[in-house]
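Researcher: Please predict.
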Amino acid sequence: MADFSELPAADQEAIGKTLLTLLKAFDDRDAEALRGVYSADADWVNAFGTVKRGRDEIVDYLRGLFGDANFNRGELAGPPQTSFRVLTPETVLVSAHLQVKGQGLVGGETLDRDNFSLRALQRQGDGSWLIVSEMFSDANTETTYAH
């Protein structure tokens, strides 16, 4: 099975619910809503190399991030572009690209970012799907390899 549309409708709906909750929680800056998105043992790495392990640590970090004025200056330029890859009937990778305009930097400048993320979602015993691993990467202009 390699196509998202081949998953049972209940799984597709549960994955959609998790991803919409994630997007809404970020939009509303509601860290508590993310408790229903991450598994208890999830791992999380942001574009700046910050690593968090477990739902509680991730939610605590995001609560602080959501309270940061620089982070809150950024606005989505549009909805994320998302693709799905079914690894097994119980595990799905979700790749997303979004653009953030006007995020603040320490010192007062702003940053427009292209953000890429990769999320592994896994079906739970109750039929829900939670993020078990998430990694963010920002596009940048520095070159370390050219061919």
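Model: The chain has three helices and seven strands.
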